[in-house]
Specification:
alpha/beta, 8-stranded parallel beta barrel, 3-stranded antiparallel sheet
Length: 378
């Protein structure tokens, strides 16, 4: 009975978003809408009654979706990807919407205003976004001060990148910039993600080179590791490059990977729009197959390593998720958790509940008693 009520609730919310709110939102510049929604959600997070109303409208949970991963309890596998809450303003409200975890950032050593506007475009036919923010954020010191002493009701990942500046163009300066942020957040958040694959930063992606990544991780782990650490990979890297990064990750005890970041490839057959902005990386459905293939490849490598006595990596799947079927595909390819942003923008905030509801149905249909049993069972 409760499930049917939640399905009906989500149906109403979905129609309201698609028929009323989305047409209004999509008439305005996407960055303006993004900033206004951030302010609105931050305001809701200040009031207990507002959080209860949001929870009533969107929340859903089921024990079959719960997992304990690397000592962290996840109530469900659907998280908010880094790039939406750049300055960690929404940690109070996102649990009420139904997310099982979230990443804040990317956060850099110094404050960064990002790339010149325009830097965000909708690609409506492709259900995707072109993103050229350039790591806009308030910097590690300001954000760390904001989060100091806070208790989070869902796991929070700290996504770390290098400052988008000519000052960090050298590998040595870039390493020190990463380390500054990693060190200042060493006692904050449940896990860290080292973003080595942002397509919009000055100087490119030097740490997708295994030798340079080794130098970065030597500095990162010069202080004691107190929480799980992930690497965020690019979907545009070759298999040889991924193999090199996995080798370095094994060497330094990296716990897992986020698969994947945005794609720069403009020759993707999933691109349906006539106009594709030249700058930036592409998110959304354009990224779906690329990220799934990367998950599949990394998971297979992880299994090969496990057969040789090396522990398996945990994979967080991101890219092109807009339904329970999309999420389940990535889980069965090898992802333990999944993240989204763009799907929520095109489908509405009830999507989180829709995915979790759908996953429960799919898991039961396949005879699984817990979502962990479906990981890698493609």
């Amino acid at each position: 009975m409760l499930r049917q009520l939640i399905i009906a609730r989500n149906y109403i919310m979905r129609k309201k978003y698609k028929w009323i709110l989305k047409p209004i939102f999509f008439r305005f510049d996407p960055e303006i809408i993004h900033d206004r929604m951030l302010n609105f959600l931050r305001l809701l997070g200040k009031y207990g009654i507002a959080k209860k109303i949001v929870r009533f409208c969107f929340y859903y949970s089921n024990p079959i979706l719960e997992q304990n991963i690397l000592g962290i309890k996840f109530k469900n596998p659907v998280g908010l990807s880094a790039g939406f809450d750049k300055d960690a303003n929404l940690t109070a409200i996102l649990p009420s919407i139904g997310f099982g975890f979230m990443e804040v950032g990317s956060i850099t050593g110094d404050p960064c205003v990002g790339n010149p506007k325009p830097r965000l475009w909708r690609m409506k036919k492709s259900k995707s976004l072109a993103v050229y923010y350039g790591l806009k954020n308030n910097g590690c010191e300001a954000i760390s001060e904001k989060l100091k002493g806070k208790k989070f009701s869902i796991p929070v990942g700290i996504n770390i990148a290098k400052t988008n500046s000519q000052k960090t163009i050298s590998v040595e300066k870039a390493i020190l910039d990463y380390f500054k942020t990693y060190q200042i957040f060493s006692g904050t958040g449940d896990y860290a993600v080292i973003n080595i694959s942002c397509p919009n930063a000055y100087g490119g992606e030097p740490f997708t080179d295994s030798a340079k990544l080794r130098a970065l991780l030597e500095k990162i782990f010069s202080i004691p590791k107190v929480k799980p650490v992930f690497l965020k990979l690019s979907p545009d890297s070759s298999k040889e490059e991924i193999d090199g990064l996995i080798g370095v990750a094994i060497e330094f005890g990296i716990d897992g990977f986020v698969c994947s970041n945005l794609t720069k490839n403009r020759n993707n057959p999933a691109i349906l729009d006539e106009f594709v902005p030249k700058p930036g990386g592409l998110s959304g459905k354009i990224l779906d197959n690329l990220s799934t293939e990367l998950i599949r490849y990394v998971y297979k490598k992880s299994l090969d390593g496990a057969n040789e006595g090396i522990r398996k990596f945990v994979i967080i799947g991101a890219g092109g998720i807009s339904s329970a079927e999309d999420a389940y595909k990535k889980i069965k390819a090898g992802a333990s958790l999944i993240e989204l942003i763009t799907g929520m923008i095109f489908e509405g905030p009830q999507l989180i509940s829709d995915i979790n509801l759908g996953l429960v149905k799919l898991l039961k249909a396949d005879g699984y008693k817990n979502i962990s049993e479906a990981i890698g069972k493609e």
